[in-house]
Fold:
Amino acid sequence: RRGGRLARFGHDHVVSARNMFGYLSVAGANPAGSRADLRLKLTSLAVDDPLARKKFKLDTNPSQADIENTSKNMQGKVLESDKWPQVHLNIDVTGGTLDALEADLTVTLHGQQVALPIVIQVEELTPGQLIAFGSLNLTQSAFGIKPFSALGGGLYVEDTIEVHYRLVAKR
Structure:
């Protein structure tokens, strides 16, 4: 989300990740003890996919040049993806039910690890396929990331980012 006294001149953006890889280990009928280890190449992140913008009801229409500049700034100045090329997620399920799995999430990003409790919802699509979904908030500063700003700080990206996820696991 955009912020600052010049926020009306900026755009909110949605960043999509479609190439996450890793594994899921299901502990059995009792979900506690299940775990996942996932990774994502940061250079695979897509900025402002039209369908994602529509889904999240963003109210501005950035130009293609705005989108390209946002992607360039995100990769270079913010994420430093040349130095820190991946985000790594460890998920350890501690309890709950498939409607609301309780888990400990450890995110490694930008050389920093942040641990937090999360709730994950799970659907079984077929006997060999699961969908996990939910949302959480992260702060960029927790990972040592300085949120992007421009125009002397008059326009900036808020520190807190909303993360909405939908992960499909196939046997």
Notes: Helices lie at 50-55, 64-78.
